[in-house]
Amino acid sequence: MKLSEYAKHLLLSSDLEDKLLPPPSVWQEETDVRPLRIEKPNRADNLKFSDVKTKIPRLEHLNQTTAKGLTLHHFANHELMAIELFAWAILAFPESPLRVKLGFIKTIQEEQTHLRLYLKRMNDFGISFGDIPLNYIFWKQVPKLGSVEEFTAVLSLSFEGANLDYSQIYAKAFAHFEDWETAEIMIRIFEDEVKHVKRGMRVFQNGKPSSMEDWDYYKTLIHFPFTPRRAKGYIFLPETRKLSGMSDEFIRLLEEYEDEYSGRVNLKTLERFQFGADVWRKSDLPLPHQAE
Ligand SMILES: [Fe+2]
Ligand SMILES: [Fe+2]
User: Model confidence over 243-264: pLDDT tens digits?
Assistant: First the structure.
């Protein structure tokens, strides 16, 4: 199979199982390198893009089974979009170096694992994929992504970057309610997302003119109304960005960045959970069941 055939398979098959097909380990050489920008993926009816707004359950409701399932449904949707969008980038930017495209394939494979983890765990909570409408927030950025560097700035540095905060926040929230199994899933995914942002950082650094600062280059790659705010979670955990290879200066400027949408989260809720700035790793999960 060629990279482009695999990418098309993930985007154009409407069967969810097809989108979860792991990549082959050997690839045939690519012969056609014309860019192809697929406007939207094929999906089964219950997974199609929807403009119906569904709010993610509040953190303080994560002691309830349905709220837990619906939260994971939101995350599963992000994973599905990530699988499709990395496939999209392979087709849209075929002139990218092979190692970049193989990096995208590795990311796809890990996003497929994440999606399976969420599907299984939400089923434990009585929720099936497609039970609530699926938004397409990541896909909305696609028309504006003109280069592999712009793709990386939005997908990896911003969305996957924000997910570093979110996976930590939710690991801690699930642990707060003693759901260690889900907390562990969140940390497992966190560890992979660190690698994804790192891969993104390599594409970013390769594309950056040597005379330019990281932050200035990042800002040339994202386009209003998309702002650096999208690169952060409800709370910002600088240590996670350090793990993924961002420079101290970039991290500082990202932390300081604010716009009119900043600060809309209910800080009281966050205070209740007493989230510290500490970062949970797979190796030092503070989960009591591991000691059993
Ligand atoms: Fe993921
Ligand atoms: Fe990812």
Answer: 999 999 999 999 999 887 766 5
pLDDT at 16 over 70: yes
Mean local confidence (pLDDT), 122-140: 97
CA 111–ligand 2 middle distance (angstroms): 6
In order of 112, 118, 183, the CA distances from 189 in angstroms are: 11, 10, 10
Q: How far apart are CA 284 and CA 271, in angstroms?
A: 23
Full DSSP string of 75-135: HHHHHHHHHHHHHHHHHH-TTS-HHHHHHHHHHHHHHHHHHHHHHHHHHHTT--TTSSPBP
Q: How far is the CA of 109 from the centre of ligand 2 (A)?
A: 10
| Cis-peptide, bond into residue 225, ω within 30° of zero | yes
Cα 200 to middle of ligand 2, angstroms: 10
- Distance between Cα 195 and ligand 2 center (Å): 8
What residues flank ion ligand 2 with Cβ within 5 A? 160, 193, 196
Domain ranges of the chain: 3-19+46-284
Instruction: Quote the ligand 2 centre to 127 CA distance (angstroms).
Output: 23
Q: Measure the CA–CA gap between 227 and 71, rounded to whole angstroms.
A: 25
**Is the pLDDT reported for residue 217 higher than 90?**
yes
Q: How far is the CA of 115 from the centre of ligand 1 (A)?
A: 7
pLDDT single digits (tens) 136-167? 999 999 999 999 999 999 999 999 999 999 99
Between CA 84 and CA 241 the distance in angstroms is 24
Q: Is the pTM of this model over 0.90?
A: yes
